[in-house]
Amino acid sequence: MPVDEAAVDGELGAALLAQFEATVSHNDRIEPRDWMPEGYRNTLVRQIAQHAHSEIIGMQPEGTWVTRAPSLRRKAILLAKVQDEAGHGLYLYSACETLGVSRDDLTRRLIEGTQKYSSIFNYPALSYADVGTIGWLVDGAAICNQVPLCRTSYGPYGRAMIRICKEESFHQRQGFELLATMMRGTEEQRAMVQESVNRFWWPALMMFGPPDDDSPNSAQSMAWGIKRNTNDELRQRMVDMTVPQAAALGVTLPDPEIAWNEERQSHDFGQPDWEEFWQVVKGNGPCNTQRIAHRKQAYDDGAWVREAAMAFADGFEARSARTSTSDTEENR
Amino acid sequence: MIQPEWPLYEVFVRGKRGLNHVHVGSLHAADDHMALHHARDVYTRRNEGVSIWVVRSSDITASSPDEKDPLFAPSGDKVYRHPTFYDIPDDVPHM
């Protein structure tokens, strides 16, 4: 296993590293207060933070449809879903903080652009059908990515992923059901679904990251047990899962190269436009500026709430200290 | 971003009656009551619990991984504390 030699010095360092590697190679979990190589810690902070930011930024495209959902039922579902995304972001920030970074620091790095979020959320949700497509394809891709992460080598990250995966299943199913309902509707509604799938298919495949031969950090992440599958393996899994779902729905995936390969027992498929992918990652997607500006405004607008709550808490503690000396038993 | 962060709390949830409270994660809140309300919203959106404990992370005293050997090793050589240490004939029932 390649190691970060510079960070380990002397006999003690070698012993710590050996212990860390033994834990990882036995598929045991690393826990927050264990010794870990700096490279492992940094990779985790980057990956978990990016994941948390994606959940938080991911509330924006769908959130724009909460007020315009076509029925109370759909509105309640969408609200619950967007609230879940906030929850997922919080589970992941909490896991990331166990590595010694502060929440404020993470928020600042997101707003300043020094940490990324998934490029999929830089695409707009232009029609109501997009709410369904995001649930079906985007959350579907997220599930493909996240199920193996439940076994990741860092304990808090794996535990957060287990909670998230339980909830993602609702997200994907509500999306599929929404699209299926529209497909049973008018010609116009069916056209809306197809148009939406056309726009989201390729960005959804990009969610797994660049092809394996263009993904320099993957090998190290897999050696450390942070990642369990390569980008291309997961992308293949997504295509194989989605093809029969598209058939059931009655939509066409916008890739003429999709064909069953008997020999591989998998589907062949075309490559996304990787030039577009890198452009979006670099900040030139349709909504990059808007997403960060919105997040920054929400953070700035909330400043007085955070301050007021702290002032109230300080005052409350001071008042309690003065008045209560004998009521500690009643809470047992 | 110069103002101090809300303190960190650890959250424990009792899944149902008869079970222990189990650690589920952490969150930030200005005070204990807000921590409880946030814990309800973040960790029990689907009936995951019937009772919640929150405690400030700074109030928890934890054993350190470095002390693992001195703390836990003494129980390692006391195999006679386990029922499998004792040979009982196979035909003796209910043991």
Backbone structural class of chain A: mainly alpha
Strand order of the largest sheet of chain A: 1-2
Q: How much helix, percentage-wise, in residues of chain A?
A: 55-70%
SSE sequence of chain A, one letter per element? HHHHHHHHHHEEHHH
What is the number of strand segments of chain B? 3
What does this structure look like?
- The complex is a heterodimer of chains A (332) and B (95).
- With 332 residues, chain A is mainly alpha-helical.
- In chain A, 66% of the residues lie in helices and 2% in strands.
- Chain A has 13 helices and 2 strands.
- The relative contact order of chain A is 0.10.
- The N terminus and C terminus of chain A are likely disordered.
- The model of chain B has no long low-confidence stretch (mean pLDDT 90).
- Chain B has 95 residues and is of the alpha+beta class.
- In chain B, strands 2-1-3 form a 3-stranded antiparallel sheet, with helices on one face.
- Chains A and B meet through helix 4, helix 5, helix 7 and helix 13 of A and strand 2 and helix 1 of B.
Properties at a glance:
heterodimer, A: mainly alpha, 66% helix, globular, B: 95 residues
Write a short abstract of this structure.
Chain A is mainly α and 332 residues long. In chain A, 66% of the residues lie in helices and 2% in strands.
